[in-house]
Write a structure and sequence with these properties.
The complex is a heterodimer of chains A (about 400) and B (about 180).
Chain A (H helix, E strand, L loop, with lengths): L3 H14 L2 E3 L3 E2 L20 E4 L2 E8 L6 E7 L10 E2 L5 E10 L2 E8 L2 E7 L5 E2 L5 E9 L2 E10 L2 E12 L2 E9 L9 E8 L5 E7 L6 E7 L9 E2 L17 E9 L3 E8 L8 E7 L9 E2 L11 E7 L5 E7 L6 E6 L9 E2 L8 E9 L5 E8 L6 E9 L1
Antiparallel strand pairs in A: 1-29, 2-29, 3-4, 4-5, 5-6, 7-8, 8-9, 9-10, 11-12, 12-13, 13-14, 15-16, 16-17, 17-18, 19-20, 20-21, 21-22, 23-24, 24-25, 25-26, 27-28, 28-29
Chain B lengths: L1 H12 L6 H18 L13 H11 L3 E6 L4 H9 L4 H10 L1 E6 L5 E3 L5 E3 H7 L7 E5 L5 E6 L4 H12 L8 H8 L1
Parallel strand pairs in B: 1-2
Antiparallel strand pairs in B: 1-5, 3-4, 5-6
Helix pairs in contact in B: 1-2, 5-7
Classes of the chains: A mainly beta (about 400), B alpha+beta (about 180).
C-alpha cells in the first residue's frame, strides 16, 4: 500500500494541474542584479491589472539607489513586456494598479510619506493626501474608481476612502473621508477595496483596537457613509488564561465577485502551531460576510502560508493564490471555489519547483483568464518578476 | 482613547485643587490604557530597539543581536514576558551581552537587511519561515543568523543559549552538541 500511495498522490496532483493551461512565463522587470531588490507587496496585493487585453504590472525596486516605483505594460498583441516606466520621483513604496479599460490604467503609491496616483497613459501624478499616509490601494467597478489608504490621525493611522475620477489621463479627487469619524484608538492599516456590481463599496483593513490584529470590514452604498466596522474573523478577541489578547490575522484582500458579491481572503493564525493559514469569507450580495472558510487543502495544513490574494470576476469565478514551502521551497499555489468549498491546491508550474517562487499577485480578465505575477528570487543573479497567463479547461 | 484621556488630563490640570483627585483618576486610567496598549509587546524595562537601530548598534559595539520576533496580542509572548523576562538577572545578562531588537510579526514597518534589501517587519517573518511567536533569533553583529528558537523558554534556557552564543561556541558546535556537552 505504501508503494502505491506516492503514485496516487502524483496522479491526483497531475489531474489537478491538467485543469489549467499556462502560457510561457515572461520576465517583467528589465533591471536585475544581486543588489537590486524588487518588491510587489501592496495593500490588497493589487499589483497586476488587465485593460483591454494589455497587462500592467507594478513594483518597487532600488536599481537607482533608492526605492522607486515602476509600471511595465504588455500590450494585448505583444509577446513581451515593454520597458518599464518610472512612476515616482522620490522614495516610493507599495504601488498598486487597476484597469480602466481600452489599455488605460491608474496606479497609486506611497511617495515621501504621501499617497500619489496617476493615470497611464496620462499626465503628472496627483498627490491624494496632505497628511502622512501609506499603504494605498485602488479599486474599479460599476463605472467608479476609488482609492483607500492608511493616514496618520494623531498617534495612530486610520483608513481613508476616496472617490476619484479620470478623464483623458487626468485624475481628480471627488471626496475623501475616513471610514470612521472617531479618532483611531490603535493602529489601522493595509486597506483592501472592492466595488460590487451594484456600485457599493467594501473596505477591509487590519485593525488593532482589540490589542491584536483583526481584519475588519465596512461597507457603503454611496461610497461616503460607511457602516460600523464588523470583524471578518469569527474568532473572538480575548485573552487565553489571562494571557495575550487574541489570534493574529492579517493582510485582508477583497475582490468583487459575481453580480453583486464580494469575496475576502486573509492570513489567519487561529491554528497557531502551523503559522498562518489562508482563510476566506464571502458576501453574496447581502452586505454581510458568511462563515470563515479555510482555503488551502490538508496537504498545506502543516505549512505556513504567505501572501494570500483573493481573485474573482463578475461571472462568479473565484480563487485564491498564495505561496508556501510544502515541497521544500516556496512555490505559488492556487485553489478555486467549487460552490461549497475551495478545491484542491494546484501548484502553478512556472512558479514552482526548485528555487524560490513567492509573493503572487493575480487578476482575472474578462474571458476568465488568470494573470499571475510573482517574484522568482535568485541571490546570485537577482530577483525576477515573472508573469504567466492561465486558462482552465 | 489614549489621546482622548490625555486631553482630559490637560484640561483638568488648570482646574481648582478639589479636582486633583480627578487628575489622579485620569492618570490611573491613562496608565491602564497604556498598559493594555503594549500587551505582549517587548518585556518592560528592557532596552529593545527596532531592527535598523539594533543592527547599527551591533556593528558599532561588536555585540551579537538578540531579536525578539513577537506578535501583538500573542499569548505565548505575554507568558514568556511574565514568566521568563521578568527575571532581573536575565534582564541584566541580556542587556549587557546583546543589542536587543524587537520585531512585530504583523507590522508594515520597514527594515533594512544586511544585504541592503528593504523589507517590512512582517516580511522578515517570511524570510525566517516563522511559524510561531515568540521566535528568538540570535545574530552576529553583522546581522548573520546564528540560530532561531521558537516558543516559550525558561530563564535557564536563555542562560544556556547565552553561554552558547556569547561564549562563541556556535562557531564550533551545534546547539545540541553544546547542550549535550553541558550535562
Amino acid at each position: 500500500m505504501r508503494s502505491i500511495l506516492p503514485l496516487m498522490l502524483v496522479a491526483l496532483a497531475s489531474s489537478a494541474q491538467a485543469a489549467w493551461e499556462w502560457s510561457e512565463a515572461l520576465t517583467v522587470n528589465s533591471a536585475q542584479g544581486a543588489k537590486i531588490f524588487p518588491h510587489i507587496e501592496s495593500a490588497n496585493r493589487q499589483g497586476i491589472a488587465v485593460s483591454g487585453g494589455a497587462v500592467g504590472v507594478v513594483w518597487e525596486d532600488n536599481r537607482n539607489g533608492s526605492p522607486q516605483c515602476y509600471l511595465a505594460i504588455k500590450p494585448a498583441a505583444a509577446k513581451a513586456f515593454q520597458p518599464e516606466i518610472r512612476l515616482s520621483q522620490t522614495e516610493c513604496y507599495e504601488p498598486v494598479v487597476v484597469a480602466l479599460g481600452a489599455g488605460r490604467f491608474v496606479a497609486a503609491w506611497e511617495e515621501a510619506g504621501k499617497v500619489h496616483a496617476r493615470g497611464v497613459p496620462g499626465n503628472a501624478a496627483l498627490k491624494l493626501t496632505e497628511a502622512e499616509s501609506a499603504q494605498a490601494t485602488l479599486a474599479v467597478g460599476a463605472g467608479k474608481l476609488y482609492a483607500a489608504w492608511a493616514e496618520q490621525a494623531g498617534q495612530f493611522r486610520r483608513i481613508v476612502v476616496a472617490s476619484l475620477t479620470e478623464k483623458r489621463g487626468v485624475l481628480n479627487i471627488n471626496h475623501a473621508q475616513p471610514v470612521e469619524t472617531a479618532a483611531p484608538i490603535d493602529e489601522q492599516g493595509w486597506p483592501a477595496l472592492a466595488i460590487a456590481g451594484d456600485g457599493s463599496v467594501t473596505v477591509a483593513w487590519e485593525d488593532r483596537r482589540n490589542h491584536h490584529t483583526v481584519p475588519m470590514v465596512s461597507q457603503s452604498l454611496d461610497g461616503r457613509s460607511f457602516a460600523s466596522p464588523a470583524r471578518l474573523i469569527e474568532i473572538r478577541s480575548g485573552s487565553a488564561d489571562g494571557l495575550g489578547a487574541g489570534i493574529g490575522a492579517m493582510r485582508p484582500t477583497l475582490s468583487a465577485w459575481g453580480k453583486q458579491g464580494v469575496a475576502a481572503a486573509w492570513l489567519d493564525k487561529r491554528d497557531f502551531l502551523s503559522g498562518y493559514d489562508v482563510y476566506a469569507a464571502l458576501d453574496t450580495g447581502t452586505r454581510r460576510f458568511g462563515s470563515n472558510l479555510k482555503v488551502q487543502d490538508s496537504f498545506g495544513d502543516n505549512m505556513v502560508q504567505w501572501h494570500a490574494k483573493i481573485v474573482s470576476d463578475a461571472s462568479g469565478r473565484l480563487l485564491a493564490v498564495w505561496d508556501d514551502a510544502r515541497d521544500g521551497t516556496p512555490d505559488v499555489w492556487l485553489a478555486e471555489w467549487k460552490g461549497e468549498a475551495f478545491g484542491d491546491d494546484v501548484a502553478v508550474p512556472a512558479a514552482s519547483g526548485t528555487g524560490e517562487q513567492a509573493d503572487p499577485v493575480a487578476v482575472l480578465d474578462e474571458s476568465g483568464g488568470l494573470h499571475l505575477a510573482w517574484l522568482e528570487r535568485d541571490e546570485k543573479n537577482g530577483t525576477r518578476i515573472r508573469y504567466v497567463r492561465g486558462t482552465s479547461r | 482613547m489614549l489621546e482622548f484621556s490625555r486631553m482630559k488630563i490637560s484640561r483638568q490640570i488648570v482646574l481648582p485643587k478639589e479636582n486633583w483627585m480627578n487628575v489622579i483618576k485620569y492618570l490611573m486610567m491613562a496608565c491602564c490604557l497604556w498598559a493594555s496598549a503594549v500587551l505582549a509587546d517587548p518585556p518592560p524595562n528592557y532596552p529593545f530597539v527596532n531592527f535598523d537601530a539594533g543592527l547599527k548598534a551591533a556593528r558599532a559595539s561588536g555585540k551579537p543581536i538578540f531579536l525578539y520576533f513577537g506578535r501583538y496580542g500573542c499569548a505565548w509572548c505575554d507568558h514568556t514576558n511574565k514568566k521568563t523576562f521578568s527575571d532581573e538577572s536575565l534582564k541584566t545578562l541580556y542587556s549587557d551581552h546583546y543589542e536587543l531588537v524587537y520585531v512585530d510579526a504583523e507590522s508594515g514597518r520597514r527594515v533594512t537587511l544586511p544585504s541592503g534589501e528593504r523589507i517590512t517587519e512582517a516580511e522578515l517573518g517570511v524570510r525566517l519561515q516563522a511559524f510561531a511567536t515568540p521566535l528568538f533569533v540570535y545574530m552576529t553583529p553583522q546581522g548573520e543568523k546564528i540560530m532561531q528558537i521558537p516558543g516559550f523558554k525558561t530563564v535557564q534556557d536563555f542562560r544556556d543559549y547565552d553561554r552558547y552564543v556569547h561564549g562563541g561556541h556556535y562557531k564550533q558546535k551545534t546547539l545540541l552538541e553544546f547542550l549535550g556537552g553541558k550535562s
